Structure formats: structure tokens, C-alpha cells
Amino acid sequence: MKRPLENIKVLDFSRVLAGPYCTMLFADLGADVLKIEKPGSGDDTRHFGPFQNDESAYFGFLNRGKKSIELNLKDEVDKEQLLQLVKETDVIVENFRPGVMKKLGLDYETLKELNPQLVYTSISGFGQFGPYSQRPAYDLVAQAMGGMTSITGHPDNPPTRTGSSLGDMSAALYAAFGTMVALYHRERTGEGQFLDIAMMDSIFAMLETNVLRYTVDRIVPSRIGSRHPISTPFDIYGAKDGYIVIAIANDPLFARLCHVVERPELIDDPRFVTDSLRTEHEKELKEIIEEWLSSYTVEEAENSMNEAGVPCSRINSIKDVVEDEHTKIREMLVEVDHPIAGPMKVPGNPVKLSLTPPSIDKAPPLLGEHNDEIKKRLLKVGID
Amino acid sequence: MKRPLENIKVLDFSRVLAGPYCTMLFADLGADVLKIEKPGSGDDTRHFGPFQNDESAYFGFLNRGKKSIELNLKDEVDKEQLLQLVKETDVIVENFRPGVMKKLGLDYETLKELNPQLVYTSISGFGQFGPYSQRPAYDLVAQAMGGMTSITGHPDNPPTRTGSSLGDMSAALYAAFGTMVALYHRERTGEGQFLDIAMMDSIFAMLETNVLRYTVDRIVPSRIGSRHPISTPFDIYGAKDGYIVIAIANDPLFARLCHVVERPELIDDPRFVTDSLRTEHEKELKEIIEEWLSSYTVEEAENSMNEAGVPCSRINSIKDVVEDEHTKIREMLVEVDHPIAGPMKVPGNPVKLSLTPPSIDKAPPLLGEHNDEIKKRLLKVGID
């Protein structure tokens, strides 16, 4: 199979989540990713659960298909070897706090002297410059500072974090895109460059039109749970055994819903004849819908609504979505064969390229698994 | 200034959010993006608020720097012109429901005959294949089906949608990355290909380690608000005038916090001496922290904690983050000069490339603004 990034060598100084997810996307597409790990302990996530046969599945998921070498960034001999590696590298990815790589003598300004074609991608909480640059970054902090937390949750409850690490994941995606742009530019011009990705910037960018509501209309968007800012009924509703999403954005769909909930007279009810009137009378409408739903399970309600062409969906638990046939057919859950832990089921890669698809076939590395192979090679280069 | 994608021509059939955000990232980096719009009405978002001088800021934000041509995809003359455009195009992006482009005779299999080097990116709710492929996709549905909604929110409340359209935005980012990978591969081999991106896949991929908790430990992750699954105190806490995030992941940091909240005796309290004990006694600890916070504003508490080196942050509202000095310095809020609406403040681009940065200097197009220019050129090509 063709692997679109098989000529790309990545030197990966990153740890935990944002950086490793970015380089995982590269490894899935064939890049040769060499993980530089702290001797003896390695990436922190090697010690994060869940564990399978004492091996971290957290680490395994994010580092499949990569190689591992132990190098002490403060040791002169190790650093000499590292600088040799830099010379033959295409991409560096790191997510230390801004300034750390400079203290180690491994910042872009220094390394581009060794390798002018280098693409150097830094991911941090608040970016390489700006007033918050030196603050410690946790996903929770990035989501809160970037504005996402203030608009997530129910109006009468405290704000809430998105259930996964959106600050890390969005930064990883902008970093992966930007790094590919830099590689494309390099392919055409021979020029390398530096990329500065911040989690707070990434969260802010993901806010989409919420920003405009303030910059244009001077409205500060608030928490509205799962409701649509304009359309109704468009929300999560309680059924007999759980919750169901109903998404009605126009009058014909509303009419269909009225038939499903056995209240056809509501179609001409003056409170509900237009979308904006329905939004005005949102609470009454929710009561009516939930009254009907209280007699049906989510599955029953979903079936009736699907039959009538009413846009709806159940709310999948992680178990539901993992075991969903759709997830399997889309190869969004894949198996990685770990030499110690055995087969590990991990999330797949959504970048479904027809000619050069992602392929997830190599295990994550044991700590220092490639020490000998790489150090021997470097020794030879040194002698030549 | 150098623009890394200035040799790339994008034919953009996409509407509303996911597709347009993907091609916006390309336009910001210099690609020549031509938006194909429905004659007379154009992209639906031209009619979405907020409006500035009757022009949609929603549309303006997503379509800055693009061109617009009105073409009726069902009209034979218009389609002939479109096929001429396909011949000179590098990338097509579309986000119709799977099957629509095929019915129009504009699917990848057909168009690659005209242009074998074409990169063709389709974005949809559930992908081009799989049991849910034909279901209507709303962001709310994608978040719910992909599993994110089930883990977002407080334990005693209904699940909740992330405050922005994460299904669209994550799909846009995977699509932008995948398209760049395809362009990189094409640059080296001359081969085009097809890319199939699904919102449900993208949400599932963003779940990160939540998936492993089920596949490895058979635990179905539930809603835990903003809490950390392992560490405590790591949550959102109420102060006198709002909420504050505190993120403590180890004992030395906990000791600092005890001093800030004027309860140094808690450092040796047997209930709180280790992270796992603190997690066990999470409620008691929350009460203690909020008791102290009840006498202080968020700003006062943030200052005391920052001084003591306790990781914390306020929860920025959209107004707060828009007006934050950091946002300005990072150029995350930029002005686009609209010919009718005047200057519009819109979210910037987080892909901070040192040599070839994004530049957002061209207005969004009026509907059909480039009809004449492009049709005249096509006419000439037709004659030659």
C-alpha cells in the first residue's frame, strides 16, 4: 500500500496528548516518527491508565507505529547524537512550555542552522508569545480561557468542560494541518519554517459564530444546554429510559413531529405556527413532547420518528458508539497488536483517503526499543 | 508575503459550516477558492445572522478571501462551464448528502476522467458508506451519535452539547489535514484521490482516551462535569462573583492551595494526604475550597493563587476572551473590510507559520461577484 508520508522523518519531543496525537496522525500515514523519551521513565502517559497487562493503553493509542529512543536532553553525549538526528530530520514536534527548548539549545533558531529545511512545530497552552505565554496549560484551563466553557452546559447550572480534551485535540489538528502546509511549501521551495500553535487560540477558533454574536451584535452568548439559538424544537428530550435528540428547523418537519406525538392540532396552534413563535414558547413545547416521550423508550421513539422522517437520534454512550456497526464498518475502532499487552482496541483515523489511506498496523514502541538500532547507525555516520 | 497555497485552485461546492470552514483555512493561506453558489440565493448562511448592514457576518467570517460564481448545477450550459472549471482545478470540496453529487454527474469517478490529478474532498454527517450514510446530519446529531454528548455535562443533569458546532469544526479540520496530505502526495507522484470525511467519525476520534476506558477497562465513562477522572481538586469552583478553575494534580501543589485558602492544617489531614484520597473525599474538599472562595471575587482569588503558583484560571465569557489582550496580540481576532457591511471583526487563524503566515486581507464575495470575470475567461478558453 502507498503511504503518503513515508519519506517524512519526524523527531518527536512531545509528551502526553496534543503533540503525540499530532505525530500519531503522521505515523498513521506512513511517516517515520522517532519519539525522544526521558531515560528510564519515558513519556508520562506510559504511567497513565487504563492498563492492559501493565502496559498503558493511553500511551499505546497515541504512539502506535512510532519508534522510541531514550536520550537525556541535558547530557552532552546524548545531545551530540540528537543533533546528528536533527540533520536528517524533516519535522520536529514539541510541546514543552515556551522557552524550555531554547534552554536546552534545541530551539528553532539554533537547529535551523544545522538543517535549514527543517519544519519545526511547537504546541503550547498559550503560544510562544503573548502575556499568558508562560502560564501552565491544562486542557481544563485552555477550554476555560478560550471561552468554550462559558457556553457549554445548562443555563441554571455551572459551566462545564467538554467531555474530552478539546484544547489538546484541536491544537493537535491545527498543528497537523499547519505542518502539512509547511511541508507542501518546502516541497516546492526548499524552505523550512517554524509553526507556533496554542491551545487557547485553537479553542477560540473552534467557537465559530459565537464570536460574531458578540463582535457584531454585542450579545454575550450564554449557556443554552443543547438548544438551538434560533430553531425550536431542537434540543435533547427525556424519554422513558433515556434521552433523545430532536432537530426541527422548519414548519413541514414540525407538522410531521405533531403527528408522531399524536397532537396534530398543534400544527395550527397560534403558539407554534412559526419557528420564532415555537422558540418563544419553547418550554410549553418541551413539556408536550416529553409528555408523549414518557410513554416510549428511546428506541421506540427513534423508530417512530425515523419512519415519519423526523430528524432525531439517540445519545450514544461510549459503549454504544464503540459497539455500533457503523463505527466498525468505518474502521473507527482498530486493533493494535502490542508485544506485551496483546491486541489493544484503539480509536481509528477519520482521514479516509482512497489511494493512500491511514494504516494502523504497527505496535507502539517499548521504552527505548530503538536505542540500539539508531545509536549504531549514528555511530557509523559519525565514523564516515 | 509568501502564500504557501497560492498555486492551488479550489472549487468549493460546500455550504453552511464544515466545508466552508475547511476551504476558509485554504483561502487564508493563499489558495484561489471559487465558491459555486445557487443562483439568486447563494449559500444558506448568507441569510443567517448576525447581520451587519444587512450582510451576514456568519457568511462573511467563513468565506473571506474567496470568490463567488452563481451556477445552476442542473442547467446544461452552466454545467458545461463547471466542467471546464473542473479541468483546471486542484481541489474540490463538497458537503452534500452522499449521493447528491453523483446524481448531478459531479462525483469523483466522473470528474477524475476529466482531471486525473484532482483531489476531491467530501464531508458528510456519517460518511460515503456505512449504515447511517443517508441520515440527515445536524451538528447536534453528530455530537450525540459520536458519543461526545453522553460524557459532557453534570452527573445529575441531562447530557449537553458542546457550546459550539464541534461536529462540523472537527470534520473541517480532519478534512483540511487530509486534503493537504493528498496534495503533498500529488506533488510527489502526480496522483489525485478521493477523501471521505464524516462528522460522526470526527467526533468519535476526538473522544481520545474515553474510548479506551471502555475497550480496555469495560467502564462506560459518564458525565463528571469539569472534574478530572483521577486528580482532585481539579474542577470548576464557585467564587463570590463567578466561577474559577483550579487544577491540582500533585501533593506539593495541594500544599500551596491549602496556604492560599488559609487552611494549612489540611496538608496533613488524613483525608487529603494523597491524590486518590483527595478524589475519594472530593465533596468535602470542594466545600472547603468554596467556603474560602465565597469571600473573594474571581479576580482576587485568581491573583492570590497565581502569586502562590497554584494553577487556576477564570472562565472567560465570549466578551472576555474577545477583548483579552492575549487574543489581540495573537491576532486571533481580525478585521475584514466588507464592501457593504464595512469592517467586520471575525475569528482569526491559529496556524501561525513563521515564513508563510495566514493572511486575512480580502473581503468575502458578494453573491456572483466573479460571474463576469470567470465566465468571460471560460468563453475565451472555449474559443481557443
From TrEMBL, chains A, B:
Gene3D superfamilies: Crotonobetainyl-coa:carnitine coa-transferase, domain 1, formyl-coa transferase, domain 3. One of its GO terms (molecular function) is CoA-transferase activity. InterPro entries: CoA-transferase_III_domain, CoA-Trfase_fam_III, CoA-Trfase_III_dom3_sf, CoA-Trfase_III_dom_1_sf. Keywords: Transferase. This is CoA transferase. It comes from Siminovitchia terrae (Bacillus terrae).
